[in-house]
From TrEMBL, chains A, B:
It comes from Sporothrix epigloea. SUPFAM superfamilies: PLP-dependent transferases (SSF53383). It comes from the Eukaryota. Belongs to the class-I pyridoxal-phosphate-dependent aminotransferase family. GO terms for molecular function: transaminase activity. Keywords: Aminotransferase, Pyridoxal phosphate, Transferase. The keyword RNA-binding does not apply. This is Aromatic/aminoadipate aminotransferase 1. It holds the Pfam family Aminotran_1_2. Residues 182-524 form the Aminotransferase class I/classII large domain. InterPro entries: Aminotransferase_I/II_large (IPR004839), Class-I_PLP-dep_aminotransf (IPR050859), PyrdxlP-dep_Trfase (IPR015424), PyrdxlP-dep_Trfase_major (IPR015421). Its cofactor is pyridoxal 5'-phosphate.
Length: 534, 534
């Protein structure tokens, strides 16, 4: 069964629901934020008890938060939890200057009356009528600093959970009923929490991932005693046949006692470091292999909205005309469907992040997964971080909810994708112009921030005498000498004790200026030429 | 060797140091923020390699952050790390309205021109002269949103680390040379990270703590397979003789294979739940026992600055006259010295938090410990949270650094302590007036937010027939019936499988109004009277 909803549907549901009443540390009812009216009739997710670690299984609900159930009793006075009084918070109001979500999104535009909006959140906005200080009497706001800056639920505030739940339904339409969401402190932390749910040191658990993978993910898994197993990839990312082969032929003894893996970590769009994006067919095939071998999927999608049109060397110059207006649904239609959208079993935990599309410093993202997994995750969050900061929740609420709305946010995403597309084009142009194509080859990325360069080590004058790692170091050192920092392929090897599959470098087009990108690629090309004596 | 510094000394050092230059993801040099000129001559901390867990020992530095060392090379262009360009951050500026730190601190005062200050942080304040948009040419700011909201070091920004290092030196004067600091996402998360540094499931590690302890701390330790061992406490908190007895008589076999503990978790001031505060003599005695048994100390001090004068029933009415002005040094002189201040071995990790004295929603605190331990902690933070949110760091910077300074912050702390003192007095008055002292007894707390009530279970009409836990439940249920929520003593038992030492309830004076506190205590008294048939 499939369904779809639009931003208009969300607006209509909001109107029916009326004002969200959610005070300090209020629990959110995620179901109440779903717009598709038939969600309760969808099949339920599978249970994952057999995969859950000893540590995670042993987590009990926080006793003080459990006691909060009594707070519903009318007239009850709590001397229970030690929540400070907001009278003692030294912040009366917080304001942001942001683009207004209507016209242009540039810094310059945001600084003007036309293109910018000044948002403001007061300490008591949710408990007094709008404009109360100036004699007004509008309805109160739904969120304020007295709520955002006090202790809250580790899952996040109801106000932000409503927003991410709606956005997730708009983007993913999960095909099972008990899908849920919770906020995270960013996907880096969310991954560590996920690994602690699914992996036991004593059980000798393993983690499947792309043969070249996000280095921080690898660095997170290893100290926990998790054996990382690399799956081959091509220009469409992880290869399902390789995944199937590894799982079908798994030999515990030959693997030194490591149990057959039941967990896959993958970055489907603009994979870090290879830049590869899985097609929809590829995703379906991977999902099917995971179903067959009972593998749970951690879908990490920081770059999902940075999916770009294919790179073309000969293209019309970037126009100063605004791009034709797209509806939110048209924009979303250009994106490869998510794993969650095909997740009939509820075997996917999707990690979304605001880091790459808003600001990394929010240290805030969110999960989509079945209620069982979200509940285990939140139990851990109560101990390890208590959810994202109130300052972040208050700030993003002001931008996403009060200034942009869902439609404005999608416009922002389209703007950001356009910005990264131009950056990618600049870098790819420089590669075509300045790299020795006799030894350096690549596939133009269609998502994300990274470009993966393969250097043909067999053409190195000392091929056979020098190892790939030695050549990598030689080129890297020459790059530094030439004044460019690039990522060494070996930094991203899922199994660094195995011989490398090739000689690779990762470059990013995320932040350098156009001039600097071109200069940097020239320097990289010179380093390759010098070491390969071309 | 002991030393002391003042806020004036800090100001003088700052002046000598000049402008702090620390851009995006800059590493902080903690030593450069120390004011005591002789710190390098102090003895070094001991090494704790023998206590560090397998997981923590296996953590290697983040490869991408290591590569950042090359960024120092002049003229180098980085295509290395995927840091987004701040041009893509949709926030031009952020402003807060806060009390100005000079006169009054109330909401009402902060809303006025006289008592309030409007602070502002722009995106590029650190890279353009002050007032550049209006033609000005002052020196640039030291911190801005382009830095705060990008990826940063997991240890925290140099700008905030300078502040907490100075504050720590002012308060603690650590007596060893290689003490260091790093930011945390709050002490709840910091404790979990600390436990993962010092405890191994396979090693059957144990954690010593007060027999009644912070429930979230207990809930953090247990799923990790850590055996919690309760140490007896009295009105001055943890009893060193009890600690010594447990350690001296430790029998691994009798303890079911649990190794002799090497880790103590303690809340020295206003302990949660008992409200007890360790005297300076008590702290010295505890430290000495820990030295003798090679125990590392986790000092959790959320309530340190909420140390109050002793409670007196007959006291002058709260005066509307401002209290006599105190210098920062006078205020700090009223506080019991910290464990860090007596930590000649570097065996203490102190956890400080802004939650109880500024806002919980900052999800930001900091650690003080030896460089070795801070380094292990930060390695983990790189994987599990990447440090506190940039919105929090930017907000607290605006309040602490730009508006208050160290002296203003100490004034704020004195204000908050006064506010809690009045709250405590109200609650204690109500206890004297409304509780049946024939069965309920207590020691007035001199710090924190909690008050611990002992009910004499031997006076219960069904004493001998009913267990303490049954009586506790009966009273709790009657409390709910009467309309008051209190904490049950058993929620805080370090070893819930052991018979309880008594019948206890925890009440907080943190947030209820004076009227509600009095009413709530009356209801609690009625519940006790009813169940005890008084």
């Amino acid at each position: 069964m499939s369904y779809s909803i639009t931003t208009k549907d969300i607006e209509a549901r909001r109107k029916r629901d009326g004002r969200l009443v959610a005070g300090t540390a209020a629990r959110a009812d995620i179901g109440s934020f779903k717009t598709f009216s038939g969600w309760r009739e969808l099949p339920k997710a599978r249970r994952w008890d057999h995969l859950i670690s000893k540590e995670s299984a042993a987590r009990e609900p926080c006793v003080l938060k459990k006691a909060a159930v009594h707070l519903k009793k009318p007239g009850l006075i709590s001397l229970g939890g030690g929540l400070p009084s907001p009278a003692n918070f030294p912040i009366l109001s917080m304001g942001l200057r942001v683009p207004n979500g209507e016209t242009e999104f540039s810094d310059a535009a945001a600084a003007t009356e036309d293109g910018g909006a000044a948002t403001q959140m007061g300490k008591y906005d949710a408990s007094q009528p709008l404009g109360a200080t100036s004699g007004g009497s509008g309805p109160a706001e739904e969120y304020d600093l007295s709520i955002a800056l006090n202790y809250g639920q580790a899952a996040g505030s109801a106000q932000m959970l409503r927003w991410v739940t709606e956005h997730t339904e708009l983007v993913c339409q999960p095909p099972y009923s008990d899908w849920s969401t919770c906020l995270t402190v960013g996907s880096t932390g969310a991954l560590e929490q996920a690994l602690r749910i699914f992996c036991d040191r004593e059980r000798h658990d393993a983690l499947l991932t792309e043969a070249y993978s996000f280095s921080t993910a690898l660095e997170t898994a290893k100290p926990m005693g998790i054996r990382v197993v690399g799956v081959e990839l091509d220009e469409q990312g992880l290869i399902p046949e390789s995944l199937d082969n590894i799982l079908s032929g798994w030999d515990v003894q030959a693997r030194g006692g490591t149990a057959k893996p039941h967990l896959l970590y993958t970055v489907p769009s603009g994979q870090n470091p290879t830049g590869a994006t899985q097609s929809v067919e590829r995703r379906h095939a991977i999902y099917e292999v995971c179903q067959r071998h009972d593998v749970y999927i951690l879908e990490d999608e920081p770059y999902y909205f940075l999916q770009m049109p294919p790179y073309q060397r000969d293209r019309p110059a970037a126009s100063s005309e605004p791009a034709p207006a797209q509806t939110p649904e048209e924009f979303l239609g250009t994106l490869v469907p998510t794993f969650v959208s095909m997740d009939v079993d509820g075997r996917v935990m999707r990690m979304d992040s605001f880091s790459k599309v808003l600001v990394p410093g929010s240290r805030m993202g969110w999960l989509t997964a079945s209620e069982q997994i979200i509940e285990r995750f939140v139990r851990h969050a109560e101990a390890c971080n208590q959810g994202p900061a109130g300052f972040s929740q208050a700030s993003l609420y002001q931008i996403l909810e009060k200034t942009w709305g869902h439609e404005g946010y999608i416009k922002w995403l389209a703007h950001i994708r356009e910005s990264y597309t131009q950056r990618r084009n600049t870098l790819l142009d420089a590669c075509e112009d300045h790299l020795p194509t006799s030894v350096v080859s690549w596939t133009p990325p269609t998502a994300g921030m990274f470009h993966w360069l393969r250097v043909d080590h067999s053409k190195h004058p000392e091929h056979g005498k020098r190892s790939i790692l030695e050549m990598e170091e030689e080129i890297f050192d020459q790059c530094i000498e030439n004044g460019v920092l690039v990522g060494r392929g070996s930094w991203f090897a899922a199994e660094p004790d195995q011989p490398p599959a090739g000689l690779f470098f990762r470059v990013t087009y995320a932040s350098a200026s156009a001039t600097n990108m071109t200069e940097a690629i020239t320097r990289f090309g010179d380093a390759v030429r010098k070491t390969f004596r071309l």
